[in-house]
């Protein structure tokens, strides 16, 4: 699609941001029959924070409203892999949910009840079987465990690019290296956007710009209840004796930790006591490998907050750590996604607030937005995710960003 003589081009809908959520939304809009859809990104598809996601797609969630959206993503993966003849790197290894205290054992009972309610396969698993599946895991303190065999993790970058390729097959135009400079409104209706390559006139705009979503939405006075919060994980050196590529993912709420296999090593995340949060304007707009926050944190967090994790992994200090990855998750104060229409600006929709599970829910969010825009019956309940569910907040303010950071710091499940 080319701009000529500074004239505008037209589309039915423009999706801003080509991470997993944005690319899935564009695909779903095309699936719902929308003819002129543009997916736009200032960099490359999937090159932003999507590429740094740990991408644990655990199906069962204590926040039940997320589950249908994650189940939809699993269905979508099968569809887009078939359509594009591309694997998204889905690794079906299952998840071990571990409880080592009475409190977490009670929480695990509740999680199993939720899994049963939603038809998610699960079974209790004893220490002997756990030890055979995960040689590095100390089982002495485990009180209860459940194995959910259908859980997977994916390559989030490939998932985003495959969603985008499947969308292109349905007629979606993908515009990369195109900056959105301004949202255009007339009265109470959005009518298009100005980009670094020209103007696009459209009926609908979907803000899926992730950490920069509020930079766009606040131009038109639509605050999104979310804030950029650092995510952090480490990857050990390869050790074929301890880390099989088929090992299950593990959630260790008593250690505020999660793990999954990665390239012959172990990827592990630890919850920070006070996760750093950022004003969107302070973030680098270009894909980069810079460490977010204090570089000393890559070791200090392990030293100061890793003791409980090491109690489950007695050989940890003998393992080399190959890398430490930081990215941005858009957390919300209540841990639910933030998506849906603006009540005050017609034609403007938000698909954001990943709350640390954006890859897992990307297909479901995309479908929900597409159904909203095309006036189709919604396949899941939208109310928990409404962007106006909080009142009188400034998403750029330090106090609100701290509320969002606290939601991450207190989160105990994986992903």
Secondary-structure map with pairings?
Blueprint: E1 9-16, H1 20-31, E2 37-40, E3 56-57, H2 67-84, E4 91-92, E5 95-99, H3 102-117, E6 123-124, H4 127-133, E7 144-148, E8 152-153, H5 156-169, E9 173-175, E10 180-186, E11 189-195, E12 198-207, H6 213-217, E13 227-236, E14 249-252, E15 257-262, E16 265-270, H7 297-305, H8 307-312, E17 321-331, E18 338-341, E19 348-352, H9 358-373, H10 398-409
Parallel strand pairs: 1-2, 1-12, 2-9, 5-14, 12-19
Antiparallel strand pairs: 3-8, 4-8, 5-7, 6-7, 10-11, 11-12, 13-16, 13-17, 14-15, 15-16, 18-19
**Which CATH class of the largest domain applies here?**
Alpha Beta
Kindly report the name of the CATH homologous superfamily of the largest domain: FAD/NAD(P)-binding domain
Run of helices and strands: EHEEHEEHEHEEHEEEEHEEEEHHEEEHH
Question: Radius of gyration, rounded?
Answer: 21 Å
Q: Count the beta strands.
A: 19
Question: Roughly what fraction of the amino acids lie in strands?
Answer: 15-25%
What is the second-level CATH architecture of the largest domain? Answer: 3-Layer(bba) Sandwich
Low-confidence stretches: none
Count of helical regions: 10
Q: CATH topology of the largest domain, anyone?
A: FAD/NAD(P)-binding domain
Shape: globular
Average residue pLDDT: 94
Beginning-to-end CA distance, first to last residue: 37 Å
């Amino acid at each position: 699609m080319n701009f000529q003589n500074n004239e505008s081009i037209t589309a039915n809908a423009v999706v801003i941001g080509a991470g997993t959520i944005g690319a899935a939304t564009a695909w779903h809009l095309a699936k719902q029959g929308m003819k002129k859809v543009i997916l736009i990104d200032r960099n490359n598809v999937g090159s932003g924070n999507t590429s740094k996601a740990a991408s644990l797609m655990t199906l069962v969630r204590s926040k039940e409203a997320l589950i249908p959206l994650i189940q939809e993503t699993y269905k979508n993966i099968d569809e887009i892999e078939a359509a594009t003849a591309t694997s998204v790197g889905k690794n079906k290894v299952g998840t071990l949910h571990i409880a080592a205290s009475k409190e977490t054992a009670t929480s695990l009972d509740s999680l199993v009840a939720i899994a049963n309610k939603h038809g998610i396969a699960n079974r209790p698993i004893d220490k002997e079987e756990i030890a055979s599946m995960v040689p590095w895991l100390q089982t002495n303190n485990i009180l209860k465990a459940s194995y959910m065999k259908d859980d997977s993790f994916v390559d989030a970058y490939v998932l985003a690019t495959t969603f985008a390729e499947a969308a292109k097959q349905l007629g979606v135009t993908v515009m990369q290296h195109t900056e959105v400079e301004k949202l255009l409104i007339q009265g109470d209706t959005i009518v298009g956007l100005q980009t670094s390559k020209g103007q696009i006139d459209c009926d609908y705009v979907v803000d899926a710009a992730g950490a920069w979503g509020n930079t766009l939405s606040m131009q038109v006075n639509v605050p999104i209840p979310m804030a950029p919060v650092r995510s952090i994980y480490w990857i050990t050196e390869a050790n074929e004796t301890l880390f099989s590529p088929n090992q299950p993912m593990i959630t260790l709420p008593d250690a505020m930790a999660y793990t999954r296999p990665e390239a012959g090593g172990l990827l592990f995340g630890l919850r920070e006591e006070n996760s750093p949060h950022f004003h969107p304007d302070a973030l680098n707009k270009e894909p980069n490998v810079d460490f977010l926050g204090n570089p000393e944190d890559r070791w200090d967090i392990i030293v100061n907050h890793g003791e409980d994790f090491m109690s489950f992994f007695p050989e940890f200090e003998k393992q080399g750590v190959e890398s430490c990855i930081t990215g941005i998750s858009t957390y919300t104060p209540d841990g639910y996604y933030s998506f849906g229409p603006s009540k005050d600006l017609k034609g403007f929709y938000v698909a954001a607030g990943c709350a640390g599970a954006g890859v897992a829910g990307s297909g479901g969010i995309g479908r929900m937005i597409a159904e909203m825009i095309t006036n189709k019956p919604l396949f899941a309940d939208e109310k928990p995710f409404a962007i106006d569910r909080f009142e009188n907040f400034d998403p750029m303010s330090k106090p609100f960003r701290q509320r969002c950071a606290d939601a991450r710091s207190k989160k105990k499940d994986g992903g």
